[in-house]
Amino acid sequence: MVYLEGIGAGKTTFFNCLNEDLEIDSGEFYIEENEDKRKIEAEDVGYVLSTPTVPEFLTGRELLKFFIDINKDKIKDLKTIDEYFDFMKIEKEDRDKLLKDYSHGMKNKMQMLVNIIANPNVLLLDEPLTSFDVVVAEEMKQMLKDIKREHITIFSTHIMELALDLCDEIVILNKGLLEKVDMNSIDKEDTKERIILALKEEENV
């Protein structure tokens, strides 16, 4: 699923409520499993921020070791640290560098990798590809396609082509309301124009 939104549409508020960073006034979030509903818990949710936050005094390897050590009883199909680095295509010469010396895109990779290791039921991705160059962005797109079968992935982007390429369902968050887009008509010009118009209206509010 993907959220296409304009400035001030409420996407960040929605993400923060789902991640329990903000208290909701009403309603609830739940997961439906085998026709049974249960309330979403904090451990169900992983959140990849558009601006990555990492402990810059650690190396990439130290961060992964620390995260794995405190979560090893919860991690399914535990791999070695270097296998995780290989999966995220982080070069060997970068693995023992301090995170403060990582580029913005590399920090984003580490943030995403930690969330993938945690294997949450719900993965929130806030503009996760904007900091990558073209080659790395393509690698990350393929990785997201590979893992989306294992998670409920809510992907926020302003780039319509990216949404069409990655997502099975598309909704527009416009003026605080969600509108589902008919995927059968998504390639039609009038549908694309309607999405663009909705985003422009939101930005002008």
The gist of it:
The protein has helices at residues 11-18, 60-71, 81-87, 104-118, 134-147, 160-166, 189-203, and strands spanning 2-5, 30-33, 36-39, 45-48, 122-126, 152-156, 170-174, 177-180. The chain is of the alpha/beta class and 205 residues long.
Question: Can you characterise this structure?
Answer:
The structure is a single chain. The chain has 205 residues and is of the alpha/beta class. The protein has a single domain (2-203), classed as P-loop containing nucleotide triphosphate hydrolases (Rossmann fold). 38% of the residues lie in helices and 17% in strands. The chain is built from seven helices and eight strands. The chain has helices spanning 11-18, 60-71, 81-87, 104-118, 134-147, 160-166, 189-203; strands at residues 2-5, 30-33, 36-39, 45-48, 122-126, 152-156, 170-174, 177-180. A six-stranded mixed β-sheet has the order 4-5-6-1-7-8, with helices on both faces. Strands 2-3 form a two-stranded antiparallel ribbon. A hairpin with a 2-residue loop joins strand 2 (30-33) and strand 3 (36-39). Helix 2 (60-71) runs parallel beside helix 4 (104-118). The protein starts with a strand and ends with a helix.
